[in-house]
Amino acid sequence: METNELNAWFGSFQAIKNVSMKIRGNLTTAIIGPSGCGKSTLIRCLNRMHEVTPKARAKGRVLLDGEDIYSRDVDPVEIRRKVGMVFQKPNPFPTMSVFDNVAFGLRANGIRDEEFITKQVERSLRQAALWKEVEDNLDGCGAGISGGQQQRLCIARALAIEPEVVLMDEPCSALDPIATSKIEDLIFDLKERYTVIIVTHNMQQAARVADYTAFMYLGELIEYSKTKRIFENPEEELTEKYITGRFG
Amino acid sequence: MDVRNVYHRLKDASRYAVLTPDGRFELFCAALASAIILIIIMIVSYLLEGSIQSIRSSGIDFVIGSRWDVNRDIFGALPFIAGTLYTSAIAILIGVPISIGVAIYLSEMAPDWVRAPLGFVIELLAAVPSVIFGFWGIFTLRGFLRDSVEPALNDTLGFLPFFEGNPTGMDKFAAGLILAIMIIPTVSAISRDVMRAVPNSQREAALALGATKQEMISGAVIGYAKSGIFGAAILGLGRAVGETMAVTMVIGNKNSFSWSLLDPGQTMASIIAINWWEADSGSLYQSALIEIGLVLFGIMLIINVIGRILMGRMIRLREGAVG
Ligand SMILES: Nc1ncnc2c1ncn2[C@@H]1O[C@H](COP(=O)(O)OP(=O)(O)OP(=O)(O)O)[C@@H](O)[C@H]1O
Ligand SMILES: [Mg+2]
Q: Chain A neighbours among B 170-209 (CB < 8 Å)?
């Protein structure tokens, strides 16, 4: 996946300025930066969720498998099937069962084969390391599990439609350390099959899970390279200030 | 539950009522609140007292008997109970899907400049007095139903018991239709509000999974709001069951029940409205009419309690579930 001179606005406010970055497949990329710098906006541009916000628009090119997802004849619904997303706050469908939560994307994509759906639900729940905890309670309500389990349920739900890229916007910010480390382990395993892009405020988390890290500031991409490099030997002064906590 | 609440508040308030102005104000408000409860208690005791003569005389036959013969003092109110439930069911069947459609449009699709004015117009419909709906039913709707809609229903679906007989335009169909129109403002406004109350994160969750807008609405929004929408429908039902004036004017007022919508009928509210002044005070006849009121009150109470419970479930969902 690759962005090319990507710009994004909320009304007249420009939140993303000329961001060009090449995201490596089957690796994990972290996006860090101070609050309000445009991390969420950037990843929401990658599955065309940005334009769901009223008055928001984006301009530029985002290539997925060599195809521009912003070209006129592309249906955003198709893009969102290929680029999954996990939100900051766990947002399971509370009135649906655990099973139906995971099956939602499959059913929305026209899959009717219940046998396949059952298999896929189990597979996704296993991948999200949630299977053991909910296996006996698949009919239980999606809101009736803990916050950490809910977030893993949302991850399973995103994985069920087998996207190519998984976007995660601070997936652990609402979770305790144990749930966080479970999700980090999970992210680590995911890159075997998926390209993962994760927004995080937690520098250690970026260092732990990401192969590449991007640092953003005021809507611009300041520095982007191997995680090790960013944390040990950053090129830009801003980056260094930020990761050493001497910011502002 | 309300009674207990007020009682506790009174008890709390009385503890410091003499001491602080706040306490005195609270006591004053609590007194006003208990006045409402007192009125309800008075109404119920009036209904009970007034119907006692009829309850003694007719017993269970009152609600299972279908003969209503004033001259022989035979009072079986089943035709009116059935008439009320039947016309209300028709109203729900016609009114609720329309209301849900309106609510979806207002909440999920309409651009801002349509949303506010359209919402206002729908609330305006709620402000039309029911006697005016009655006039409109008699002068406009009646002819249209009698000459166009009902003959067509009779021609195509006349083999069903629901559509047999001669179209008159003053019948249960007209009553159901008027009721449907009358509940649309309530049901659509509440449904719109509960849909607006669905967190945006739910919509985004569905869209991010590759759902189309339609799938997002039917899956995430309606799924989340369904108990609230159901509650709205039940509150609409409560309104339809109790509606008196418009129904009395268009239902044709026939004291027996039939399944045909094209036949006139009678509801609990309309039989009381039509005959109240005719019944001598203190007579068994009057007592029977009061007992109909009692039954009607009971039915509405149950319906409203169920409606409230469902709305409460939706609110709990919003507060508790999505952290
Ligand atoms: N819906 C919106 N309408 C208008 N402006 C917005 C909206 N959402 C975000 N912004 C603005 O866009 C900029 C980027 O926001 P964004 O949410 O992408 O930041 P972020 O880096 O994800 O911050 P955080 O770390 O706090 O989540 C901010 O300055 C914010 O004020
Ligand atoms: Mg953010």
A: 199, 201-209
